[in-house]
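JOB MANIFEST
job_type = single_chain_structure
chain_count = 1
residues = 178
[input]
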Amino acid sequence: MHRHRKSAENSDIAPAKTREQGLERIRKLQSVSRRGLWGLAIFLGISTVALPQAGVLPTISRNVREMLGAAPPTNLISIALVVYSFSALVLILSRIGSGNGSYRGWSHLGYLSAFYAFYYYADALDSNFWAIFAAGFTILSLEHYHIWTFCRENIRKEKEHLKQLERKEAFFSSSEQK
């Protein structure tokens, strides 16, 4: 009887703290799950600025071109884009398969922006915009899917754990009343 009372007393303090910690983990996971959407939204913003028809990007002055030198050949930029896209997709799929919950979308935004910049500097953005956009949207969508499913699964586990805590509390409170 004394053992049950001690467990019941601990269940009054520990489950409340554990419940709060579980709810905090759920809030954090919900926040993390939205990173993929933020990455996609930022990419869409960058792409809107880079869109050749938008005319937002300034022309590169002759002095800047002389300082930077010749642009890389567009076929090399295209090869780099294909290699980068393939590598990024393989790495994302391996993280999905391993259950790793890290989000790498921020670095992808940097790489994709660099491809926009290289094609723009090479005066070839008009004909290559959609290739970068398709690669970026695919990569970032897969990143979003990865982080969203990872968080959703862990939220489900946390909620299940909270339900177990409630059942334990109900058991100890009913046995304490007897």
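[summary]
Residues 2-177 form one domain.
Confidence is low (pLDDT under 50) at residues 1-12.
exit_status = 0
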